[in-house]
């Protein structure tokens, strides 16, 4: 998450159950330059930066994996910047839902319209209109902070190219998401 001086937050990248937040600090980046927010419930592991750095230095495989993961996060942030600048809200909304689905391995996502508006950098009313359109088309079911993806293929057809680009970068650098 990137926080602006107004207090508004916008998502730059999404990390799932197999990812890591702040690995660059362990790779001698000194500080974390963004803020991570947990969007879905689940288990997490917190690791001391110095301990991770020590283990990474001793394990070329781990060091390479951490570096490739940082590349995926950077590529995703670049893609998000392009997406925000050029794609319509509906396409970005579809991309965002699909990415959240991939990372959580679930068709059920507990997100409010206000939260989705923050993630997409739009007003809640824009999210309401898009969610209504997608629900009427049979792609999702939406009720009070609960979204069910009903037709992922149709949702992907409505998503911008950024969904596929991010997924391709991830798979080339890390491998397919594990179920």
The ordered string of helix (H) and strand (E) elements is EEHHHHEHHEEHH
Strand order of the largest sheet: 3-5-4
Structure annotation, total helices: 8
Main sheet characteristics: 3 strands, antiparallel
- Shape descriptor reads globular
Tell me the fraction of residues in β-strands, as a range: 5-15%
Q: Overall pLDDT, averaged?
A: 89
Percent range of helical residues: 55-70%
Low-pLDDT ranges? none
Could you tell me the number of beta strands? 5
Describe the structure.
This protein has 179 residues and is mostly helical. The chain is 56% helix and 8% strand. The chain has 8 helices and 5 strands; from the N terminus they run ββααααβααββαα. A hairpin with a 2-residue loop joins strand 4 (140-143) and strand 5. Helix 2 crosses helix 3, helix 3 packs antiparallel against helix 8 and helix 5 (113-120) crosses helix 6. The protein is globular and about 55 Å long. The model has no long low-confidence stretch (mean pLDDT 89).
Sequence-ordered SSE layout with sheet pairings:
Layout: E1 2-3, E2 9-10, H1 23-29, H2 49-58, H3 60-86, H4 89-104, E3 108-109, H5 113-120, H6 124-136, E4 140-143, E5 146-149, H7 152-158, H8 161-173
